[in-house]
Every structure is written in C-alpha cells, then in structure tokens.
Amino acid sequence: MDINMIDLMDLEDLDMLDTTRRLDRHRHRVNPFELSDEDFRYKYRFSKRFGEKIVGILREDLVHDPRGCPLSPEIQVVCALRNWARHEIQDDTADLHGVSQPVVSRTCKKVAEILSRKSREFIKMPTTLNEQQETIRKFRSIANFPTVIGAIDCTHIRVKKVNADGGQLYINRKGFSSINVQVVCDADLKIMDIVTRWRGSVHDSRIFRECRLKQRFEAGAFSGILLGDSGYPCTPYLFTPLLNPTTPQEERYNRSHIRTRNTVERCFGLWKQRFRCLLRGMFGDIETAKKTIVACAVLHNMAIDMREDVFSGERDSIEQYSSEPIVQRYIAPSIRGNIRRRQFIETHFQ
Asked: Can you give the residue ranges of the DDE Tnp4 domain (predicted)?
C-alpha cells in the first residue's frame, strides 16, 4: 500500500478519534451538584453548600450564551472553583466537566470579573462605631494590644514572565515575576482591604503611601490603628515594632505587636491554602490575574462567614503556606509616629 495512503488513513483515524472525544466530552456533562457532599468536596475542595451559595450570588450574571453549547451557572462556578482551588491543568478541568480548555479559560475569566465587580459587598473596612469597636475587641483578645483595627502586609503572587515593555518591573527581590498584593485583615482572618495593581518590584511602603486607605486614616475615618512590620514607616495610625527595644515596656510592646500582627500572615496562609493558584502562581494575562486574586479574596471571606473548613487532611499544613516575606529595608519612623508610639507604650504597656 502506498505510504501516502497509509498516512492519509492515519490522519482520518485521528480525526475520528478527536471527533469521538469531543462528542464524549459533551455527552458526559452532568450537574456536579448531584454529587454526594463527600464527592463534591473531594473534587472542588469546598462543600456543596458553599458552591450553591456562589451560584445563587452569580446566577443572574452568568447568562447563558444561546450560540454554540451554553454552560449552566452551576458548571461555570465549579469550573472556576476547581481551577483556582486545585490549580490543576485546565485540560483536566475541561475533561471532567465535558467542555474544552478554551471554554474553561473563558469561564474562569468571566467568573473572576463578576466576583471582582462585587468585591465591595464582601471586602470592606468596618465603618460604624460598633463595627470598629468589635474589631478592636477581637484583636485585643489575641495579645492584649489595644485599639487595633487591622493588620497590614503585602504578599507576592507569582505571575508568568511579562515580555512587554516594563516587564522587568514585575521581577521582585527574590528574582521571579509577581504582583505585590497589599492586604489588611481582621482578627478573624477576613480580608478587609486589598490592593492588586502594583508590580513585584514596588516596595510595600510605597503601595500603602499611595493607596486610598491611607487617605481615609489621615482623614480620621477610623478610631483604631493598623499594625505593620518594619517595611512600613511608623505613623500615628500605623504602628511598627521597635527595632531595638531597651526596656521591659518596649519588649512587652514588641511581643504583643508581633503576636497580634501575625494574623495577617495566618490570613495569607489560609487564603493560599484554599486557593492553590495564589500559592503556585497565575499563568494568564496580568489583568485577569489581578481580577482572579480579588475573586479569591471574596470567596475567602465568604468561606469564613460560612465557617467553611479547610479541605480534610490539610489543616495542619496551613502554617507552612504562610507568606514568606521578602526582606524589606527598614523604614525609619516619622517624628509624629515615633512620638505617638512612645506615648502609646507608656500608656498601655507599663
């Protein structure tokens, strides 16, 4: 038989195999919410109740596309949830749900965009006096550090190498491309404020200096203070640890400060444990990565509100996924900040 004829037959066989695979993929599309609670949690790392809550919030926005092969809101939500939580290859998510990889990619992008638009409903600082007092009370219960309304820090989320002009500015001090994400959390590890627009080479102190939250503190919008590490300047509304404590009062202040501020490190650990895409890195375009980070913050807060447990068997490993801080240069305190901190120590840590 002619070799060319054999090659042609092989190509026809491959086409038939690919067609069969596509047909099988669509034929086996099922409603994931028909799974048992245990199977759903195994596949998506969250409870079925949590998935149903997300579908209820996004249903009106996840409109069916009448062209081609539309996906139900349920399928769209679980595709995004599995892809972000497990950080698996999109082809595997596609095969599991009877769709193609490009559909999974578009679906994740769409869900991230919708969740990021709704972020102000779920990510917000306490505004009323009662809310602020309750936040301060919970922080004080950790290590008796008074008047704390939030713990602040930055964490680097890895992104793929940016080849466009200015791409080198995404490379951080550890040598990989990232987005430097600023987070303020409360004592329950919920994210109250998030900034995702800065490249990896930007210093934490600059991100805070140019964020809207700083303006709100300076305008007197909050009755409490923030706690940050030495990468931030000490100001009247953001206290940092003392570089060289010399008295028992200063040592007590530092110990209490470290234990209380550690909530933001634990927040990063839990957040990245729930969503492995934050731990292992984003591989889409930068704008989609930023929206996905915000979307995962929204889902993280929802999970805390719903008392969603960490995936079985992984609770003990949360601490090892805590943010590994990139060493920041020490920022000297402002004169006003230094005076305010000194008065604070004399008042509360005698």
From this structure: 152-301
